[in-house]
Amino acid sequence: MGTDKALMEVDGRALALRVANELGKACQSVALVGDPLRYQGLGIPVVADNFPGEGPLSGIEAALGATGADWNLIVACDMPDVGAETVEPLFTVDGDCNVPMMPDGRTQPLCAVYHRRLHAAIRAMIEAGVRRVIDVPGNLEKLGFAVRYVRMDSDAPFANLNTPEDLRRYLGG
Asked: Exposure check for the chain: N or C terminus, fewer CB within 10 A?
């Protein structure tokens, strides 16, 4: 994208705040993982990343290490259309990790519910060199954790903004 997506303005506010405000309707508390100095002005709690620069998996690790809640919704800040109604089904199945599955079979582990008991396993994955979040559900299954895939009716709410073209298209331009 060429800019910090969390701070990128969409509809007059930071993208991270847009996502946090919507997901706050489904969760008791919301926090952002990243550099506390960089994001302190957003007005939401910021959890420091334990493995800065190592990608989104390190964000999941930091969130699970800092949480007091058993169940944690982890969502990338660049999914502006993920709403409370989209994520609520992820809380209705009994797994250690509940991952949305799109109609075409693709999964989205960057918008999933993770139990905090997964913290040590996720940390071990990072320390072993795993960086791709898409690999996490399979690795968790190999370790004996229950991964549940929740069928979604549409992949539209999970679209993320990765490029300037994605942003232009999202903004209707």
From this structure: C
Determine which helix (DSSP H) or strand (DSSP E) holds 9, and give its type and residue range: strand 9-10
Is residue 129 assigned to a domain?
yes
Note the pLDDT of residue 173: 64
Tokens at residue 68, please?
Answer: 């007091």
Rounded to 5 degrees, what angle do the CA atoms 155, 71, 132 make?
Answer: 55
Q: Cα–Cα distance between 30 and 172 in angstroms, integer? A: 29
Q: pTM of the entire structure?
A: 0.93
Tell me how many helices (H) and strands (E) the chain has: 7, 8
Render pLDDT for 5-27 as a digit per residue (tens, 0 to 9).
Answer: 999 988 888 999 999 999 999 89
Domain of residue 71, residue span: 9-170
The tens digit of pLDDT for each residue in 34-43 reads 999 999 999 9
Find, among 170, 26, 20, the residue nearest to 91 by Cα: 26
Residue 4 lies in a domain: no
Pairing between strand 71-75 and 46-47? unpaired
**In this structure, how many other beta carbons lie within 10 angstroms of the beta carbon of residue 13?**
11
Total domain count for the chain? 1
